[in-house]
Specification:
By secondary structure, the protein is mainly alpha-helical. It contains 24 helices and two strands. The longest helix has 18 residues, at 344-361.
Amino acid sequence: MNQLSYLLQHAPPGTDKVLHAFALAECLTDHVARPLYETVPVPGLAFGDFVSALRYSDIYEPRNSEWNIAESARQELNAKSALSADETKKVHALLLKAAAVGDKTKAGWETPHYLFTDAGLAYHKAAVGEIEPALQHYSNCSRGNYRGNQWLGAKFAEKQEQEGIIPPGSIETLFLRAMVLFKTGGRRKAMPMLRTVASSEKRQREVAIALHITANEDTHRHRYKEAEAAYLRSIEIGKVINHHHHVAQTEHSLANMYARQHRYEQAELRYLRSIEMLGALRDPFGVAQTEHSLANMYARQRRYEQAELLYLRSIEMLGALRDPFGVAQTEHSLANMYARQKRYKEAEAAYIRSIKMDDELGNRFGVAQTEHSLANMYARQQRYDEAKAAYLRSIEIGRNLGKDRHLAQVYRSYALLLQDVDPDEALWFLEESLRLNKKFRNRRGIQIVQKSIGKLKRKN
């Protein structure tokens, strides 16, 4: 016999209804629990006495000044449903009332904090039949960076879809659940859900964002035709709903794809459009990021003067915004361009500035990546000892962080440095690089390393 069954067997009649009412709330305070109790009271037993007794049970879980019914007991109470449909709606209505009249400055000890969130409002409004307002609150949950409100909203949305309270396949709830997965490492599960959202004919924020994300995925997989169509539709919806920041961001991503395809005129047009919009929106960080991307493209086109101007401007803006991480990334890109121009002294200084900033930020992977680039430059200059030291530093960090994709690249670069002085060791690093490329099914990486192995074996 579980704790709930034991408690109900020895408790006075009506206890099951009270516990079911309490279980409908994610969490409670005594202040908010009182009117719920008074809706379905246990005859002859005061609220204070009931809660005092409940605190001694295993189904009562304290949360500082809040408390809740244990999840296992909550599920059982909701399944048995001691309350009638009308009583259930009344409890949800009382919880909404508590949110409406509650003092937000006393959230957490007089009124449960979740009742003031979009997640809480969505859940309880849906439960009383206010579906459209509930969907709007669920939509609000998906905005911004990942936080507890998003996780809770996704949990509520999935539960209410399963119970048939929210229409299955609602764009707002499907998108919310997908984004929580996407932001918490469940990308593989999230993508099919996001593609479902992206296929909707509706013109709303969720569809525009889902189109942008799926287009990025298609670009990564070289499905450029599908990506381009999704980016353009995402931009179109963004314009319709007046989401100008989304339009600017998507223009940036579309430009990146065009640049990747060497469609430079189209890419430049989109980059400049994004920069203009972000400037009008007073988003200097967005401008700096996009100018960095445009500078990368100019550098690939050998339009070095234009690229250098944009890199330096991006560094200046990011410095003013106190974004050392962004500065470090841009210094790395600037150094790469200087190295291609054989401006080695300037390149070395920029690489070292990037490494120093990443090291101070604790961005060890950033350090490893820049050490690799610096080592490549030293190797081209035939500064063997310095190149070897930088490669080994990059390898050590990569191994400590478990960055096998990074190691696959550095192992090949280091092997090329070793091939004339220690061919056996060079072969070992190439074979390790091949193994890691095969692990990640990197066809291009496999081909490049196999070619290097073949050349080394023929040479020796």
